[in-house]
Amino acid sequence: xxxxxxxxxxxxxxxxxxxxxxxxxxxxxxxxxxxxxxxxxxxxxxxxxxxxxxxxxxxxxxxxxxxxxxxxxxxxxxxxxxxxxxxxxxxxxxxxxxxxxxxxxxxxxxxxxxxxxxxxxxxxxxxxxxxxxxxxxxxxxxxx
Length: 144
Description:
It holds the Pfam family YccF. The chain has one domain. A two-stranded antiparallel ribbon has the order 1-2. It is mainly alpha-helical and about 140 residues long. About 75% of the residues lie in helices and about 5% in strands.
């Protein structure tokens, strides 16, 4: 119940703006055709940006235990290209949103979420979004 309330407040008080920014960059990437992998990542993280509470971004390699093209060296190259073209701008948007949220005491949890999203925006290729419980099970299972 608290997650739902947090997500509704988040969405109404700014999450929609950054989610739409992610989707905007996703559309630009899809238009270029060569940017479809970046566009896919934008829509996954953009949806996460709309409703982040109860979800967590995690490396697909960490989740599945297997490498794929996004978690390989090609993913690193893709993330460098992403950082230069769009990642820095999305990170700055999340940082500005975090500062605005930090100004109020009530907004601190939202500011922390914006900071997490700012980090994700720097290198989203190879990431996926899952419920927090699934992420915890994936991480705990790999430590054994």
